[in-house]
Structures are given as C-alpha cells and as structure tokens.
Design goal:
Number of helices: 7
CATH superfamily of the domain at 13-151: Gcn5-related N-acetyltransferase (GNAT)
Order of helices and strands: HEHHHEEEHEHEEH
Helix content: 25-40%
Number of strands: 7
Mean pLDDT: 90
Radius of gyration: 16 Å
Structural class: alpha+beta
Low-confidence stretches: none
Strand order of the largest sheet: 1-2-3-4-5-7-6
CATH architecture of the domain at 13-151: 3-Layer(aba) Sandwich
Length: 203
C-alpha cells in the first residue's frame, strides 16, 4: 500500500482539485506513444509479467499472491482510484503484443505529491530502458500532473534501483517501513524530489 511522502506541503484546495482533474483526464500517450491505461483486457498479460519474481519480487505494493484474481482486482481498484484522481496504472506493450512493463503512479492531490512504482520485463532490465523511462516519467509527472513533490522507495537490497534514483538527483531521506497489501512490512530506502529542484536553477 502506497504511503504519502514524509514532507507535508501546504496545498490550496484549487491546486489539489487541478491535480485530481489531471489524473482523471490525462492522456498517457503524452508520456510515451506506447503507454496506455491498464484495463481488464491487460490482466492476462500483466499476470505473465508479474509472475516472474525478477520483475515483481522487489515491488512492495503489488497484490499478493499474484494470480489471475488478485491482478484483476488490482486493475479494477486502480481504475476506481483514477476516477477519484488518485492513481494511474499504465502498461507498455511490445511489438508482439505482450506487456513489457508497467508504471503505477499513486497521487495525493491534497499533498501535491505522488509516488512512482513499476517494472520492466526481465529481458529488458539492465539495458538502459528502465532508466530512460524513469527520467521521462518523473518529468512528465511534474509537468503534466502538476504535483510539487515525488517520493520513491526501494528495497534495502535493490542496488540497481537505488543507483538510478540517486543518479536522477533524488534526496535520500532515511528509511521507511513499506506495508504490503497482505500486511507484511518491508524496510525500504526512501527518497524525495521537489519540482523546483528537478527543474533546477533558472528553469
């Protein structure tokens, strides 16, 4: 279960509502032409992707156990949360029609904040695709969703993700206990990035 960031911003009601509106009405192709909102037709392909522990193992906010019923319920729940302006579950499909990766963006409009989670298929890992995609997605979240703060977590032993997060300039803010849907707790590394810091001086 995603948790809001440690930093609490003072957010006017109009700003929060603008973020909710953006989440409800966003066009994912503005991020990537191959990216689209997940729907029930994606359940089988998502199940294939997430059944690989190399993909799903490090991610705490996935449904457990991973099976057709839990993945279908997860997709449906994310659709409902999008209607409230709080979640985007996006999928990428490759040329063969298989889901090659997914992104889940959890949004707290009243905090002007969001969290990004996701993964790519094992055969595409360590090829630079995940890193490039993460940069684009973070930039898109700040620009298109209008949030002012993004937080990220990684498992203590997820060295690849930690290196990528720090290469993007996120600020390490200690650790946090990430609570999975089944109630188990995963100690996690924790980072934040503000929109102003991401854009840099003079941006």
């Amino acid at each position: 279960m995603s948790a809001p960031p440690k930093t609490v911003l003072d957010v006017p009601a109009a700003e929060a509502e603008a973020i909710r509106h953006a989440v409800r009405n966003i066009d994912p192709t503005t991020l990537d032409g191959g990216r689209r909102l997940a729907c029930p037709d994606d359940v089988e392909a998502l199940l294939d992707l997430l059944s690989d522990p190399r993909v799903s193992g490090p991610i705490y906010d996935l449904p457990r156990p991973i099976n057709a019923d839990t993945v279908a319920a997860w997709v449906a729940r994310c659709q409902g949360e999008r209607e409230r302006g709080e979640t985007l579950l996006l999928v990428n499909r490759d040329a063969e029609g298989q889901v090659s990766g997914y992104s889940k963006i959890s949004v707290w409009p009243e905090r002007s904040a969001a969290e990004l989670a996701g993964a790519i298929r094992a055969d595409r890992q360590s090829a630079g695709q995940g890193g490039a995609g993460a940069w684009r997605t973070i930039d898109w979240m700040f620009e298109t969703l209008g949030v002012r703060l993004i937080c990220l977590t990684a498992a203590m032993d997820n060295i690849r993700s930690a290196r990528l997060i720090e290469a993007m300039g996120f600020v390490r803010m200690g650790d946090r206990d990430a609570v999975a849907e089944d109630g188990t707790v995963r100690p996690s590394l924790y980072w934040e990035m503000s929109r102003d810091a991401w854009r840099g001086p003079g941006a």
